[in-house]
Amino acid sequence: MSAPATPGRDALTFRRATAADAAAYSALARQLATDTFAQHNDPDDFALYLRETYGVARQAAEIADPDSVVLLAELEGEIAGYAYLKRGRPPACVTGASPVEISRFYVAGRWHGRGVAQALMRRTAEEAREWGARTVWLGVWEQNHRGRAFYAKCGYEEVGSHVFMLGTDAQRDLVMVAGVDALLGEAAHPPRPAR
What we know:
The chain is α+β, with helices and mostly antiparallel strands. The protein has a single domain (13-183), classed as 3-Layer(aba) Sandwich (Aminopeptidase). 33% of the residues lie in helices and 30% in strands. It has helices at 22-37, 43-53, 56-64, 116-130, 145-154, 180-183, and strands spanning 13-16, 68-75, 78-86, 99-107, 135-141, 157-166, 169-179. The protein has a 7-stranded mixed beta sheet with strand order 1-2-3-4-5-7-6, with helices on both faces.
């Protein structure tokens, strides 16, 4: 006879990362980037990218930054994926109102096909709305066909491109945008008139 399931253990939940999550978040982020992109890039450039982008201190700073939020998706007692959302100046091709960026968005391979990515995208859009954003944008490597297909399925549209430096390799990222309301499956809300 099997032991009863721990309440809530099997349910997908979301929460903002805290300082206590920095080490686990950093290790996961580094591993997911490696799993996704290492085989498609020059080893030296990829190693430089990892050194520049991941590390406990770096991820702790992302968590602490008031202009960013790291959302963790948890399932079966582990972090199944994460989204790193931040405010900042978008590229000129992003013309939607009040934009915020999804800087990184990953779901661990073992959870692919289980709805985790879709649920995480929805929670990310809810977080963007809480910030007052009306538009979400992201950059996705032009060679990342799986990612591009997922974002298009969510409702993102390509509006331009920009350069992403992976080590010393200048790569082309496609810039994709979506309205927050569209990501949440709602009709667009007209701006409130000034009083």
